[in-house]
Amino acid sequence: MNLYRTHNCGELRESDVGKTVKLSGWVHKKRDHGSLMFIDLRDHYGITQCVIDSENPIFSDVEKVRHECIVTIDGEVVQRDDSTINKDNPTGMIEIRICKFTMLSYVPGTPFAISSVSDLSEENRLKYRFLDLRREKLHQNIVLRSNIISSIREKMKKSGFLEINTPILTASSPEGARDFLVPSRLHPGKFYALPQAPQQFKQLLMVAGFDKYFQIAPCFRDEDSRADRSPGEFYQLDFEMSFVTQEDVFAAIEPIIYEIFKEYSNKSVSQYPFRRISYDDAMLHYGCDKPDLRNPLIIENVGDIFAGSTFTLFIDAMREGKVVRAIGVPNADKQPRSFFDKLNNWAKENEMSGLGYIIYGEDDIKGPIAKFLTDSQKNTLKERTGIIGTGVVFFVCDKEEKANLFSGMVRTKLGMDLNLLSDGFEFCWIVDFPMYERNEDTNSIDFSHNPFSMPQGGMYALENIDPLKIKAYQYDIVCNGIELSSGAIRNHDPEIMIKAFEIAGYPPEVTKEKFKGMFNAFQYGAPPHGGCAPGIDRMVMLIAEEPNIREVIAFPLNQQAQDLMMDAPSTVSEKQLKELHIKLDLPKKSTIKSAND
Asked: What was the pLDDT predicted at 227?
């Protein structure tokens, strides 16, 4: 028999009435009613109410207990009075009449109330994360995360994927973020890097003949925190497949993602195959490459309509190379004038000159731009922007990149302000990403996404097409405006690899040296292969309906990439530095960014 319990605190039911039981857990709440004292005892599994009357000789011992003390209670399971039944608690039909009470761990007090749901500062929550994790919502998020990971593993294995772990200590690689470096004691002056992703290793596994690989992979990137991105480390469902095309990769992962979201959420989930949207179309129609498809609003290019109008402001702007974007919002004509004034002020706050619009009412068409268009142009504009009946069309005019970005912001704001977003999970793939982009600081050509991707058109494209017009077999999977993963069909040809990196400024000898393992392996034959890596943390965040990714990670860093609980990063001794042959050259204190900045 277990020394501390016969049952857990979420287990007992009416059928157990009359049994003598032993429970152990934390004192969640204590209520003194004079002649009766109630204790809610909590463990990982739930909460059970325990009761003792003042005539009991151990009443004075129980009376001394405080919140979060850990105790063992022996007693009899009894039926609750009808007036005290709690139907919201699975154990709410019964209670334990205390016969014996043992203090296992006395707690004089805690920095904050575990049972409270009030907001706490992030500093306190992360400093005392072991206490924060006792709170029900956060505790259940970690349970949810564990269950999701277990389910993913099972589904991947059933789909024929083999789980293989790849190294944590590896070489630095240009993945797009800063590496975390680990100095080598045995090789002075040299460093390992923690993997930003298992990119090269999983490709080498395909070269080695493993047809389908996966792992729940830890990844390390020295990048700034965001609501949907944890600084330092994160986990992803990393997988790779041989002898596949882009569509084969999609077909393999879509059912698994769909089933996970259906299994752990009551919301609707878009059916697979998920929508495919080209990068160019995403930027035009949604203003970003991570569109939230719950928002029904679509951005349209309407420059051709204004080209034949008398609205010289847009005509002159288009002569300067600018574009005109429009967003149609059905039924928005009912909004008061103050709604449009606030939008215009918001646009100015975001460094735009304003936000033009045309109102299509039941009886007339009005707005500051309407008078510059013919009836035919107004009707064409209405039709193109999806207005059936009444509504409003909003306009953005600027250089293409800025117009896309701001149109996306307008689309998002209108969707939120007018409560247009549907309730569910809407997935899509963004495909046909540019292979390269122009570095604005150096004016050089850089990889825009994954450098190990296969360019569409292969060697012919690299040798004959403007690099900025080359598309790659790269893709992102997006859910509700959050990127879950990037992936690609890989460049498995060493000659194409040399040429692709050469365009990005890597001489052949540098490529061969920097990616020696992969380049050498490709000399011995690499199959066409590709994969993807949906983020575990982001999937759990979406399913748990949490606004911040730290709410689904047991021990996250804060926004300054610090572990307040373990005091990391921390200084190390001179002895350790000498062993690593390292001397510190620290910046002056005035140049060190404050943790509160």
From this structure: 76
Going through 383-513 in order, the beta strands assigned E by DSSP cover: 391-398, 424-425, 427-431, 436-438, 445-447, 474-479, 482-489
Of 303, 467, 485, 462, the C-alpha closest to 398 is 303
What phi and psi values does residue 247 have, to the nearest 5 degrees?
A: -65, -30
Q: How many Å from the N-terminal Cα to the C-terminal Cα in the chain?
A: 55
- Residue bearing tokens 């149609």: 328
User: CA angle, 188 as apex, 183 and 194 as ends, to 5°?
Assistant: 20
Among residues 180, 259, 242, which one has the least CA distance to residue 208? Answer: 242
Cβ burial, residue 271 (10 Å; 0-12/13-18/19+): exposed
The mean per-residue pLDDT over the stretch 317-337 comes to 95
DSSP string, 279-323: HHHHHHHTSSSS--TTS---EEE-HHHHHTSS-HHHHHHHHTT-E
β-pairing, 94-105 vs 46-53, is parallel
Contact 319, 327 (CB under 8 A): no
Q: How far apart are CA 495 and CA 491, in angstroms?
A: 10
Q: How many CB atoms lie within 10 A of CB 321?
A: 8
Tell me if 241 sits within 8 A of 248, measured CB to CB: yes
Mean pLDDT estimate for the chain: 94
Segment 227-261, tens digit of pLDDT: 778 888 999 999 999 999 999 999 999 999 999 99
Residue pLDDT, tens place only, 392-404 = 999 999 999 999 9
**Whole-prediction pTM value?**
0.91
**Rounded to an integer, what distance in angstroms lies between the CA atom of residue 325 and that of residue 317?**
12
Per DSSP, the chain holds a count of helices (H) and strands (E) of 18, 24
Please state at what angle helix 136-158 crosses helix 246-264, rounded to 10 degrees: 140
Beta strands in 190-282 (DSSP E): 191-193, 212-221, 232-242, 268-269, 275-278
Q: Which helix (H) or strand (E) holds 511?
A: helix 508-514
What's the rounded Cα separation, in Å, for the pair 556 and 132?
12
What is the rounded CA–CA span in Å between residue 240 and residue 331? 47
Question: Bigger pLDDT: 406 or 116?
Answer: 406
In angstroms, rounded to a whole number, what is the distance separating the alpha carbons of residues 331 and 274?
29
pLDDT average, residue stretch 262-285: 97
pLDDT tens string 437-481: 998 889 999 998 888 899 999 999 999 999 999 999 999 999 999
What is the Cα–Cα distance from 73 to 24, expressed in whole angstroms? 6
